[in-house]
Amino acid sequence: MGSKQQKNEFGESGVNPPEQNVEKAGLKRRDFFKIAAAAGVATSAAMMLPGCASGKGSSSDTSTKSSEKEKFEAYAAPIEPVEAPKSWDYELDAVVVGSGAGGMTACLRLAGAGLKVAVLEKSPKVGGMSGYSTIFMNLGGHKQANAAEWAYPHYPYDPDAIVEHFMDIQGLGGEPTLYRSMAVAAPQCIDWMIDDLKVPLVPMSNVAPVYTAYLIWEGSTTPKNTKMANSITMEYLGKLATEKGVTVLTDTEVSALVTEGDRVIGVKATSKGKDIFLKGSKGVVLAGGGFALNRAMVKKYCPTVFPGVANYYPPPTDTGECTRMGLGVGASIAGLNSAATYDGGIDWGATSEYDQWFTAHFVLDGATAVCRQPWLTIDALGNRVPYFSAQVQPYTNVAKAEELPGGLDETGAVHLTRFNGRAYVCFDSKFEEYTKDNKLFKVKLDRIMLDIEDDPQAERVPKENRNWHAGFNDAVAN
């Protein structure tokens, strides 16, 4: 089905336009020549293939295409560090980049150890991506899970079993040392949040032990706050950090690491339109999210799934700068070509081959929800695509267990494996009758069709599409 292209409003999410990010990348002249040379080889090879066009396009068209390709690839390039300034705006023991769950944990731990710390957030408020989430997911091992005698993949909790599980998923791209560190530390972190920081985390349900895997701030989830319940936790942690002496700077975007010899000693950032330098004499923690919004990085590091990706559900914050800064000082990436998917969605697509960002539609977009119903779905070759119900048994060893929604990741993965990474939904004019009040299909979670006028993230959906009927009809018509 066709779709209407929607404009992303990155400015409201604190993400600079692509041109500004390239200027901040610190790429050297020779790097652009390398990229240009690679682009030239690719173009020449394509021209020699039999059956290709004769190449009668104007030289200006070719030059423009090459320039667009160079700029696109530059967004995946390492961001080179800069030299230390003559004077520092802030002199600290440690600087933490990003104020999501990872960043807040880091700054609070460091402050608790007696260090002088600053945490930097490019958005107007603390929380980062974590502030746009609902639950804390875990695999067990913390006090509440042990009391319920629950752990994944089995009880009692075994870090080695966790490592084995993730290595089975990631294969050669996995990093077992990192997984084991996380498996050991994660339960301790949850207990620390509950016992020391007094975060009132409780299981999202007491119906079955498995629900200790999904912890929420008690009483935070409401019908109008289903996707941002963790914003309460993140705001609380931000205030707590300030009370513990952490310097919290919002609207502050880090553009480069600062090095001295082979050591990282600080960061360069822009805050309120002014360049500032912050020294971290003991280190810098990069906790600024991933790169899922950055098309150039996904194409480079996850090439298998790239052709099938057409939409990005979270807020447009995972732009990849922290990863690129790490690469700029010699870091490497584990888990190459590993990716996670989430359900099916409309192919909003990109406006051009070299668009920098994926289209970022809110996960509760009404038109998307309509297409997630159990209609007939086929691929481009006419083969039927299986539909995965969002209702599964969560934990086989529990006799009495409420059904927990699942199957969403599987749907997205199956669509990606189809020819051209696309699936096509087929239904008739009675779709409103079939989906009325969710009585027939009884779908769950993000497959429920909602009007999102009052949702905290409603501003991410064009006003005319916040009513799901209007959004759906718009997608069909265009």
Give structural notes.
This protein has 478 residues and is α/β, with parallel strands linked by helices. The protein has helices at residues 18-24, 29-48, 59-74, 101-112, 143-147, 159-170, 176-195, 230-243, 295-301, 321-328, 366-371, 408-417, 431-435, 468-477, and strands at 82-83, 90-97, 117-120, 136-137, 201-203, 214-217, 247-249, 252-260, 263-271, 274-286, 376-378, 424-426. The strands form three sheets. The protein has a seven-stranded mixed sheet with strand order 1-8-9-10-2-3-7. Helix 2 (29-48) packs across helix 3, helix 4 (101-112) packs parallel to helix 8 (230-243) and helix 6 (159-170) packs across helix 7. The relative contact order is 0.14.
Task: Supply the key terms.
single chain
In short:
The protein is α/β, with parallel strands linked by helices. It is built from 14 helices and 12 strands.
